[in-house]
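[step 3/7] fold_predict: job queued, chain A
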Amino acid sequence: MPHWTWRFGVSRAAFINSVRATVAAVASLLLARFLKLPEFYWAPISAIVILLSTINPLTLAWQRFAGTALGAALGALIATYLPPNWMVYGAAMFVCGILCALLRIGSAYRFAAITLTLVLLVAHTQSPWTVAAHRFVEVSLGIAVALVVTVVWPAPAK
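[step 4/7] structure written:
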């Protein structure tokens, strides 16, 4: 297929990638809102992270899924028994990294750490386990939508 550029310098690949990312972001947003998830914006954020990464979408989806699950569970467990202060947070971050290494999911540490941070440090009115479950579902929804878009509508060749 010949390479073409529009009048303003937008390539066909850039146009298609923009449309794919928009479709995935809006679809995950609408699904999360339909499901009445409290922080629905994590679904489109996750879809965007998966679709617009330079890492293989399946690899990145697995990393984000595993990291989110670990970070949510660890954050909820710690928040249930300990007060959220800088020492608890620091210890939790360290334990999170060690757990990721022990579980051989070191590449998921960044996502585990992000979710742990959100569960531990953001003020919520619900129990830590509810917050963790919501975060996991919101992120997983975005991952699922991104993977569907990746399968149904593959990225254009570069």
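[step 5/7] annotate
The radius of gyration is 18 Å.
The helical segments are 12-34, 42-51, 57-81, 86-102, 109-121, 128-152.
exit 0
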